[in-house]
Give the backbone structure.
Amino acid sequence: MTDHYSVHQRDLRTAMTRGLKGCCPACGEARLFARFLKPVGHCPACGQSWAHQRADDLPAYLVVLILGHILVPIVVAVNLRYDMPIWVQMTLWPGLALVIALLMIQPAKGAVIGLQWARRMHGFSGGR
Ligand SMILES: [Zn+2]
């Protein structure tokens, strides 16, 4: 068990970065997720309970926000350069959006849980 923080200090950037990588925001020593979007009940390394997380729809909102800003300029740029058939576009862009969204959602949820823990939101006020 590592103890990098005093009772009052939880570094926001460290916690969100660890969550982004799928690691425990509190210690960074163990996995945060038991399954795709389901956090472990307690960190096996430091014992922090993740039952208090209330990420709800924020990770999905962030994914849509970020993905839209990445994908829309790509769609516009490709359409300015190439004359792609509509059936290719109707297959390519939703498929690409789905793949990117699936790749982003777990890191986004991890970062949101890190934010909630670092800022002692919901039930994360206790402990170290
Ligand atoms: Zn931990």
About this structure: The mean pLDDT is 92. The chain has one domain: 12-118. The CA atoms of residues 67 and 98 lie 10 Å apart.
